[in-house]
Design goal:
Helix content: 10-25%
Number of helices: 12
CATH topology of the largest domain: Rossmann fold
Number of domains: 3
Strand content: 25-35%
Shape: globular
CATH architecture of the largest domain: 3-Layer(aba) Sandwich
CATH superfamily of the largest domain: von Willebrand factor, type A domain
CATH class of the largest domain: Alpha Beta
Largest sheet: 7 strands, mixed
Distance between the termini: 28 Å
């Protein structure tokens, strides 16, 4: 059998002259990468950060996608003006996009296209430029950077500094590769540690020039340059844990003032090379994915005997709950050797005494809540439907805490052998939102991911708050999540799509979440591969 040719591709995206949709300021653009799943169905692969008040954005986050030489991969790049915290883009202004195949971008290496508001229609306003690079290196550079005595740029305050890092392409142009966070009102800032692939940072060449620019962030106008310098990653790496300093120079000031020394000093507190292991490195090293299902049996679903109910089994024995279990379970079960999955319900009165439970085994066997394979979960679900009384409220925290307790025992292991995925399928609003936020923040420190599939037509705004794609989820006491572990997907978006499309969207973030956990803990795969260069 011929082996498939799969390589990792990184897309750098920038735009010019975007539509301005905001009154009193400029648009806040973000670019999303979608891949065709057949027909007119698309699934999100990746998205950039949002750039505030900018009609000519250069996005620092690269879009990553697997390139299959033997497939025609239709992709779509869409640019949106983001004015809210919702992950769903349907309520944001569309600034334009374009469709092509990944092969076209790869073969061209760099393309610039006008943005269209609708495919096949005349161009709208603005252009998008995409540069493709193959990722051949699994090393990363990790650094902590601070600055001292930066110039004061603000009239009524100090400066709001951030750094931008650029690498030089083959044509001598500078390409943005990383942007730090902004630190408000501080002339001696210390930025958060960041890790960036060595390929992105310097194309894997430690002697390649890197330009570092320090800016003062201005919300209403373009940011002001404080100063800049050029060096090489090899020089930065001399820091290790000792530190390396560079003078931050403003070219115009240097020309005008003979006495000018610098506009501050940027110091690399630490800088090291790390190996970035992939999801496959962990799985092939023996990491098991343990799959648990939680099903919503609250009264808002409707009487299962009524055709209007979300739990009603159609003549062919299917409903949205079963479709979600099949779609996700069939993919995940391949990564679990014993194929024994705990499955629970919540929000129902259960036999024999019909007390409300938010954590009951589907097979009604508390000592062994395991179902054999996806078929076992489906059989247990069908068997329990006539036995329970749908009730309420919709509490998520008990089942999240249940899986978290098991994941916590897995976290005692110093090796990358266990990871837990909880699939919650629900029809609506969470009643215990504060307790659920706290449970998720606690779970973010554990080897665990939570997938929420929303069935029916309810308003799922609360679910989108839990999905940490746009900002970090915080507990009611203000404690931030250690990492993003929740993925929310509305089932209705995939009602007419093949099963694979739902699974692809639902499971898209799990590999990255698994890797982020073990990276956070500093745990390498069992039998790790040798670093690629």
């Amino acid at each position: 059998m011929a082996t498939q040719c799969v390589v990792k591709i990184e897309l750098a995206v920038s735009c010019k002259n975007l539509l301005d949709k905001d009154v009193g300021s400029k648009s806040d653009p973000l670019c999303v990468l979608l891949q065709s799943t057949g027909g007119d169905k698309w699934t999100e692969v990746d998205r950039t950060e949002r750039v505030k008040n900018c009609q000519d954005p250069e996005f620092s986050k690269r879009l990553c996608i697997d390139y299959h030489f033997e497939k025609v991969q239709k992709i779509k790049l869409g640019v949106y003006d983001i004015d809210n915290k919702s992950v769903d883009l349907s309520d944001d202004d569309y600034l334009g996009g374009f469709e092509c195949t990944l092969g076209q971008i790869v073969s061209s290496k760099k393309i610039t296209n006008p943005l269209q508001l609708k495919p096949g229609k005349p161009a709208g306003k603005g252009t998008i430029t995409v540069i493709a690079e193959e990722i051949k290196d699994n090393r990363a550079i990790a650094m902590e950077v601070e600055a001292k005595n930066l110039d004061k740029k603000d009239l009524f305050g100090k400066s709001d500094p951030f750094l931008e890092f650029f690498k030089q392409d083959d044509d001598g142009k500078w390409l943005l590769v990383h942007r730090t966070e902004v630190i408000k009102n501080n002339l001696n800032p210390s930025w958060k540690k960041f890790v960036i692939s060595l390929h992105t940072f310097c194309s894997g060449d430690l002697n390649k020039p890197v330009k570092v620019s320090c800016y003062d962030k201005d919300e209403d106008t373009s940011s002001d340059l404080i100063g800049e310098f050029t060096c090489t990653p090899a020089k930065m790496l001399e820091a290790q844990d000792q530190g390396v300093e560079y003078e931050c120079i403003h070219p115009e000031k240097q020309k005008k003032k003979k006495s000018y020394k610098n506009s501050g000093v940027v110091r690399f507190k630490s800088c090291k090379i790390e190996t970035q292991y992939t999801f496959l490195d962990y799985v092939m090293g023996g990491c098991q994915i343990n799959f648990t299902v939680g099903i919503d049996f609250t009264g808002s679903n409707g009487d299962p005997r009524s055709p209007d109910s979300l739990h009603y089994l159609s003549p062919n024995g299917v409903n949205q709950y079963l479709s979600a279990i099949w779609s996700v379970g069939l993919v995940v079960q391949d990564y679990d050797t014993d194929k024994l999955f705990p499955a629970f319900g919540f929000g129902a009165q259960i036999p024999p005494d019909f007390k409300v439970s938010h954590e009951f085994p589907l097979n009604l066997n508390p000592s062994s809540p395991y179902c054999s394979g996806v078929e076992g979960i489906v059989q247990a679900y069908r068997a329990i439907l006539p036995q329970v009384r749908l009730y309420g409220p919709t509490n998520f925290s008990p089942i999240i805490n249940h899986v978290a307790r098991i994941a916590a025992s897995g976290a005692q292991q110093p090796t990358a052998t266990q990871y837990f995925v909880l699939l919650i399928i629900t029809d609506g609003e969470i009643t215990d939102l504060d307790q659920t936020k706290q449970a998720i923040v606690n779970s973010s420190k554990l080897p665990m991911s939570i997938i929420i599939v929303g069935v029916g037509e309810a308003d799922f705004k609360a679910m989108e708050v839990l999905d940490g794609d746009d900002g970090v989820l915080k507990s009611p006491t203000g404690e931030p999540a250690a990492r993003d572990i929740v993925q929310f997907v509305p089932f209705k978006n995939f009602a007419n799509s093949p099963k694979e499309a739902l699974a692809q969207s639902v499971l898209a973030e799990v590999p990255g979440q698994l890797v982020s956990y073990f990276r956070m803990r500093g745990i390498n795969p069992v039998n790790p591969p040798t670093p690629r260069k």
